[in-house]
Amino acid sequence: KALTLDLNGQTITYSSTGNTGAITLTGTASLTVMDSSGSNGKLEATGHTGKAIYNSGSGTITVNGGTVSANASNSEAIWNNSANGTIIVNGGTVSSTGEYSAAIYNASTGTVNVTGGTVTTSGGSYAISNYVGGTINVSGGKVSVDTGKAIYNFGSTGMVNVSGGTVEATGSNG
Fold first, then answer.
1. CB neighbours (10 Å) of residue 90?
2. What is the phi/psi pair of residue 75, to 5°?
3. Side-by-side strand order, sheet with 148-153
4. Which pTM value belongs to this model?
5. Do 154 and 126 form a contact (C-beta atoms < 8 A)?
């Protein structure tokens, strides 16, 4: 199924802890996040190790507007745990704050495409973490971190391709 979440200027807060998501995708389900109001609606995870969006299937998560965020230690705004899963950021903001958190965590061999919008983190974390062997493509938008790593490619099999946009780390450890 293809689902669309229109934040419409509202805030959805998920405060549970543990490796769960406010929204969990399984199988081939796909999700598009948007904000038709233009007033920066939010989907946020505020609990330790929580996720705003968790993809355990082969679907695609597309962010076209609004904000998807994680605001606690060891949490992620978007977690892709699927070898075939894809994350696309065309607009809006994907962000995290808190120690050991990530705006986007690509835990398997899936793909992350940033064509617009902002992917950012603060507090000693990763804007994008590519953990196993996935592919990160940045062709537009902005990927930034104040303290930590803008893009962290762990392991020797992952790929990072930057052909446009801005990638910056302004603090220490970048």
1. 17
2. -120, 165
3. 21-25, 51-55, 76-80, 102-106, 125-130, 148-153
4. 0.95
5. no
Q: Which residues pair with 86 in a beta bridge?
A: 60, 111
Place of tokens 């081939």: 28
Q: Write down the H helix ranges in 23-163.
A: none
Query: Angle at the Cα of 5 (from 152 to 38), degrees rounded to 5?
Result: 85
Find the distance separating the first CA and the last CA of the chain, reported in whole Å: 39
Query: Tokens 């389900």, residue?
Result: 29
Question: What pLDDT, in 10s, does the model give residues 99-145?
Answer: 999 999 999 899 999 999 999 999 878 999 998 889 999 999 999 99
Position of tokens 């983190």? Answer: 121
Residues 6+ apart with CB under 8 A from 161: 135, 136, 137, 138
Strand-pair partners of 30? 2
How many angstroms separate the Cα of 7 from the Cα of each of 32, 60, 72, 114, 119? 11, 18, 21, 20, 18
